[in-house]
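Late entry, written up from scratch paper. The run itself happened at the end of the previous shift, but nothing got recorded in the book at the time, so transcribing now.
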Amino acid sequence: MMVGMTDTALAGAALAGLAGLLADRTRATVCLALMDGRAWTAAELARTAGVAPSTATEHLNLLVSGGLLAEVRQGRHRYLRLTDDAADLVELLAAAGRSGTAGAVAVAVAPVRSLTAAHRRRALAAARTCYDHLAGALGVAVTDAMTARGLLSWDRGLALTDDGDRWLSTLAGAWPPASRRPLVRSCLDWTERRPHLAGATGAALCSHAVAAGWVVPSRRSRALRVTDLGRAALRDQLGLELPPAEAIGSADAVGARP
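Output as recorded:
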């Protein structure tokens, strides 16, 4: 421990260091791209951020050493993904930047300048993944419906009720997962400005929705398309009546990866 440094001062230094990692536009862009939950190569991230591969490598090494990214090596290839904690932080900062509550946040959302970008933004706002859980209007609606059905409780902070635990066990199979992450957590949705369900519960529900064909992920962004099967299943399981299909997003209609 540094002489004269209190625990609070050390924590402050660590927080400043973390904030510094995301205060760079290239690193912020990389983290936002990785919010699709997949592992990307350094070359893919360099193209997305619009920087040279050597520059991207420098930034990626900083993010890995700072604990925001994790490396996955397969043969000669190096893949990178967000850590769970980093994904939560990036989504929260993106929400703060969009609402203006964080001042000059580095991850502010880019303005829409084309019809393609408008379609993409609309699809993402309607239904998308936030790292590994449902987000957008769909994610918030599912969270509200689970609360109305007594599957979630907000009385003493967000919690999965006994009924919710049984429901998820029936729906998703192996439950609870062998994971150290929180079972349930609320995540502020950056488009709806309201919380959606995250944590292990949110991840299990999203995984089931994809596997069961309730939603279809886009090939080009984090947008999701709710299928007719999904609309029927959500109505049956949660009493959730979704708005017209075009308002819930079309994964195939969105443009290039954001």
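Residues 98-112, 246-258 have pLDDT under 50 and may be disordered.
(Scratch paper discarded after transcription.)
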